[in-house]
């Protein structure tokens, strides 16, 4: 695969302009996996280009838009993830069995968008920024492994508090490319250094090594090791064999300085344990789709695009899939297959609600990410959509699982406030979220003075009571029953019965505000206005709609 611009060995003038480059630090967000405006990733044919000034990720198509918005942002690092080598092509692969994850391989180059050139090797002035971007933790991995307060979650290791270090064996500071020192092992990948004596050992077989770091501990009982290449001013990956856990070091700077490593100038050159776990989950084989043990046939084409799960995001994916299957949302945010707001917007797309909404809409509806035989690039990720909409929410901003109905109500309100449909040209055109709007009217009548009070509320969801017969008992849960028998023994309530239970009159004992005496109120509820679309969030089990059953998704 070649870079998107003509390759040359002669550097242009922009390569020597310090104002067009900003070296990221260990806390910088470097978006090197996905384009900010569309759902293309570094796995796609043309890869991604990372701006060396603002570290925004862009596809080749959207680089021109970025340079028009920011004329000085002309230098980019091109990154292309190569397909994984299929070493087991001749045999069967058990997707449920964990194994050694082969490291991802990339092609990369330095590019100048203004001169439309790609350079054989980065010029001297660009090397620092270029290397930092290449070794930076991707934003996806940062979000997955570094939630707020993550550092405090690693326990302080008592073995590091009172650690006695032997004289350092190194003339110069060790690096992540140093090979394992035990038994003539040539492993140079994911190696660990003993914090007591400085011996470098390779990882366990699951991480591609021979387990010599663990053997060193068994022979010497030196408890703590640090993963080479993960040292930054904010910390490093420590593992204590005695504690059998990832730990943190209260004397981090002093312990590193003992081996000649200055944490203030140290650069990250290897993947952390969290990044390796993130890579494994992102490369899991999803080509085999099953539900309840039954194999499903994948569907492809516009409107049939899947969404990748990242950190318990399935509740969000289910809501977005439902919303963008509706015609008003398609017309509002992907009218005539265009992203009109993005084309005109000059704001930072990572902070723009409209840009991220159109990004998800185009990803789901275009069909570009749902092509048969293109499993590597099929599916989209709505990570930035989640961040911009939920960044201030105490629950939805986390990686915890959430309730889909609660997220739906929150998202509808956020879209009403911050997202203007790109197809709206007149002031009287309604917002697409209005298709869920309904007015519920409550009528309360006093049993003594017979005065009536009406209250109305606008909502997007209708909570229905379930009218169960008190004499109806559940099954005792016979373990020999099949799933079909268990399902048949459960009570089945029709939607009409639920609506009837909502509308029926109920008595409320209270003091009347009009006549001032204890009375019984008669309360009835009805729908004053009906929604165009009524969202359905069934509880566990099934709800019958006439002759049909709606199972929970």
List the helices and strands and how they pair.
Blueprint: E1 6-8, E2 48-51, E3 57-58, H1 60-69, E4 75-81, E5 106-112, E6 117-119, H2 127-135, H3 139-145, H4 150-153, H5 158-161, E7 192-194, E8 200-201, H6 212-220, E9 224-227, E10 238-240, E11 245-247, H7 252-258, H8 273-282, E12 290-291, E13 294-295, H9 314-323, H10 327-333, H11 340-344, H12 353-365, H13 383-390, H14 404-418, E14 438-446, E15 452-459, H15 483-489, H16 495-503, E16 506-511, E17 518-529, E18 542-545, E19 548-551
Parallel strand pairs: 1-6
Antiparallel strand pairs: 2-3, 2-4, 4-5, 5-6, 7-8, 7-9, 9-10, 10-11, 12-13, 14-15, 14-17, 16-17, 18-19
Helix pairs in contact: 3-8, 9-14, 12-13
Explain this structure.
The protein is α+β, with helices and mostly antiparallel strands and 553 residues long. It has four domains: 6-85 and 97-136, Herpes Virus-1, CATH 3.30.40.10; 158-280, Zinc/RING finger domain, C3HC4 (zinc finger) (Herpes Virus-1); 313-434, no CATH class; 437-471 and 491-537. Helix content is 24%, strand content 16%. It is built from 16 helices and 19 strands. It has helices at residues 60-69, 127-135, 139-145, 150-153, 158-161, 212-220, 252-258, 273-282, 314-323, 327-333, 340-344, 353-365, 383-390, 404-418, 483-489, 495-503; strands at 6-8, 48-51, 57-58, 75-81, 106-112, 117-119, 192-194, 200-201, 224-227, 238-240, 245-247, 290-291, 294-295, 438-446, 452-459, 506-511, 518-529, 542-545, 548-551. The strands form five sheets. A six-stranded mixed beta sheet has the order 1-6-5-4-2-3. A five-stranded antiparallel beta sheet has the order 8-7-9-10-11. A four-stranded antiparallel beta sheet has the order 15-14-17-16, with no helix packed on it. Helix 3 packs across helix 8 (273-282), helix 9 packs across helix 14 and helix 12 (353-365) runs antiparallel to helix 13 (383-390). The protein is globular, with a radius of gyration of 30 Å. The two termini are 41 Å apart. The model is unreliable at 88-100, 147-152 and 540-553 (pLDDT under 50). It comes from Trypanosoma cruzi. One of its GO terms (biological process) is protein deubiquitination. Residues 305-553 form the USP domain.
